[in-house]
Amino acid sequence: MRVVLGVSGASGAALALAVARHLRQVGAAVDLVVSRAGERTLAEEVGPGALAELQGLATTVHGLGNVGAAIASGSTPVAGMIVAPCSMRSLAAIALGLDDNLLTRAASVQLKERRPLVLLAREAPLTLAHLRNMTQATEMGAIVLPPVPAFYLHPESVADVVEQIAARAVDLLRLAPPVSRVWNPS
């Protein structure tokens, strides 16, 4: 079981590490591609060693400009892709089919092959362009999962929120039994 993890330059870089950890927990091999802005955001928000830690969780690390990588082809079997976090720039490129780097090309491959593509779209407030791009990506088969806290689960820390959102993203790929916490009404 192989999953592509794309990391773009939106705020929420901790989500990338949490998603990678959850993917490894369910036994997935992780193909990682990180944008230049994603590298910067990882360093700014998580720390200078964050990129190395993330790469250590990956099975294969691909360069952003390597559009000839295996994950750029639909003939390469993968279970799906998560972009965590997903910047509005990456969302727009995916929604418009602008395969201008490996991250956006790999996302387009998921759509054309009808595989799951989960976008943790991160921005606030949203412009009409953002909303239209989310609609267009959804109409093509992507799942837009804004990293919104599940307050009903009573998270005790930001780390709890990050872990729950990351686990939910992995659950949407349907690779294994759910790893996220579920609501149990009393």
TrEMBL record:
EC number: 2.5.1.129
A Pfam family of this chain: Flavoprotein
Keyword RNA-binding: no
Keyword tags: Flavoprotein, FMN, Lyase, Prenyltransferase, Transferase
Recorded catalytic activity of this chain's protein: dimethylallyl phosphate + FMNH2 = prenylated FMNH2 + phosphate
Keyword Ribosomal protein carried by entry: no
Binding site for FMN: G9, A10, S11, S35, S87, M88, R89, S90, R122
Positions bound to dimethylallyl phosphate: Y152, R168
Enzyme class: transferase
GO molecular function per UniProt: flavin prenyltransferase activity; lyase activity
Residue ranges annotated for the Flavoprotein domain, each copy included: 1-168
SUPFAM superfamilies: Homo-oligomeric flavin-containing Cys decarboxylases, HFCD
Function: Flavin prenyltransferase that catalyzes the synthesis of the prenylated FMN cofactor (prenyl-FMN) for 4-hydroxy-3-polyprenylbenzoic acid decarboxylase UbiD. The prenyltransferase is metal-independent and links a dimethylallyl moiety from dimethylallyl monophosphate (DMAP) to the flavin N5 and C6 atoms of FMN.
Family: Belongs to the UbiX/PAD1 family.
Descriptive protein name: Flavin prenyltransferase UbiX
Species name: Rhodobacter ferrooxidans
